[in-house]
Amino acid sequence: MRRASSPSSSRAEMLARRARSALATVVVFAALLWVVHLVNAATGFFLVGLLGIVPRELEGLDGVVFAPLLHADAGHLFSNTLPLLVLGFLAFLEGAKRFAVAVGTSWLASGLGVWIFGGGVTIGASGVVFGLFAYLLVRGFYNRDWKQILLAVLLFGMYGSLLWGVLPQFGTNISWQAHLFGALGGVLAALLLKRRPAPSGTGRRLPRAR
Fold this sequence. Notes:
- There is one protein chain.
- The chain has helices at residues 7-42, 46-51, 63-66, 74-92, 96-117, 126-143, 146-159, 176-192.
- It is mostly helical.
- 65% of the residues lie in helices and 0% in strands.
- The longest helix has 36 residues, at 7-42.
- It is built from 8 helices and no strands.
- Helix 5 (96-117) crosses helix 6 (126-143) and helix 6 (126-143) runs parallel beside helix 8.
């Protein structure tokens, strides 16, 4: 005979499996960025001109998809790697589909914002970083989830200075447009993934996606 597992133990097992999947996913993604960077550096950064976002030019529109995979140098990539690992891991704990929506919405919003409003060839994953950060900050308020709000407060204490990056920074090569529109994409993702109220009498809230 086998004893049925308690709801709490089942939830702990689910979170452990999800944490393993989250760690594997973000590590593989970070490794992909470094592999692309090595290839790019070995070719004299040929991919930057080929696949970077060129604002308001049709031939630069494919950069909306590919530009977050490219970085100017190892320092640029390293500055994005750690927050991608941390924020991506935390976003994935809510489920693979929600993670995909948060990343995809931030990725596209950042790229399109740069293509429409940017001022030069733009590359880098910082728009996705800002999108995941904004998503994790606001989702708890949409969901009225005190645990997610507490996590948002902790993240704000750790990375709150990032938000200065959404303001115009003239005289630098930093794309504040990528940051701003990536963050707006994260807010949009939180809204799209907002939990629906439970039907009357159930006492539970139903997630829109997992």
